[in-house]
Structure formats: structure tokens, C-alpha cells
């Protein structure tokens, strides 16, 4: 009975799961931000490439 109570009150696994969920949330936020930034960078590089190709430098 003593071991069962000790097991029931052990929160180390719950803490690890919470840290894992926080890390996953940060990863999702970073991926979303980088996808948006990637689209903007692509547009900027295409504009630069077009300008340089047309000789309007």
C-alpha cells in the first residue's frame, strides 16, 4: 500500500509531459512564423532577381 501511494503522488512524469507539450507548442509557433517569413523572403528575392535581370540596377 505504501508503494502504491508513493507511485500515485509521484509527479515527475507529469512534469516531463508538461515540458514536452510546451516544447511542441513553441515548435508549432516557430514553424508558423517561419513559413510566413519564408513567403515574404521569396517575394523579396524574386523582386531583386527581376530587377537585376532587367538591368535596372
TrEMBL record:
Residue spans crossing the bilayer: 21-38
Q: Which UniProt keywords apply?
A: Membrane, Transmembrane, Transmembrane helix
- Name this polypeptide is given: Flp family type IVb pilin
